[in-house]
Amino acid sequence: MGGTESGTFAADAETVGALADPVRLALYRFVCAQSEPVSRDHAAEGVGIPRHQARFHLDRLAADGLLQTSHARLTGRSGPGAGRPATLYRRAVRDIAISLPGREYELAARLLGDAVAESARSGTPVVDAVNGAFAAYGEAAGRAATPTESDGDALGTTVRVLAEHGYEPHRSEGHVDLHNCPFHALAQVHTELVCGANRCLVAALADGIAPDRLDVRLEPRPDRCCVVLDARD
Known about the structure:
This protein is α+β, with helices and mostly antiparallel strands. It has helices at residues 6-17, 22-33, 40-47, 51-63, 105-122, 126-144, 154-164, 184-189, 191-209, and strands at residues 38-39, 67-72, 86-91, 169-172, 175-178, 214-218, 227-231. It has two domains: 6-91, Arc Repressor Mutant, subunit A (Orthogonal Bundle), CATH 1.10.10; 105-231. The model has no long low-confidence stretch (mean pLDDT 88).
């Protein structure tokens, strides 16, 4: 999953925090509203601030990854005496989303889209295709996990990876509750489908880390994710 890992989340939060400055936010909105890249002079005029102030904030937005820069001569001339190319700004292609608690709706949309396409292609029942898509993602995440010394055991590794993916796991001996559902809003509307798919994802992730070592089942409660895990004896 994307932005729920601690390092990425902190970086994204810092980036979004750059827009807390009202001048910077106004410049960002102005640049995004233009059909072509914007020069410093154009941005300064559009927002009504001095050029040197616009330059400072535009460069900060570019450094934080919110804007992209390019360079071009705006005079239409080239060669000696044409002057230095101007710095132009446009919105960065990068997507940034911050959610507290962590949500993964983009991932859900991608997996659900994959499942519908697979169902249409192969005739597989939609629910089976959805469960398969979520399980495949969970299996890949589990197999990609590398145990660390601080994990202690296979359940510890599973707990750490689930935490990195936004589930907020709480371990008590061999039992694990997941205090956050990354697909919360979807699960409220399509409970049976999404909770079943989520169980498939978590089970496949756990099995990818520790094959046949953990039982993963649905145990719905309103204050947490519907999935719980228990270590097998």
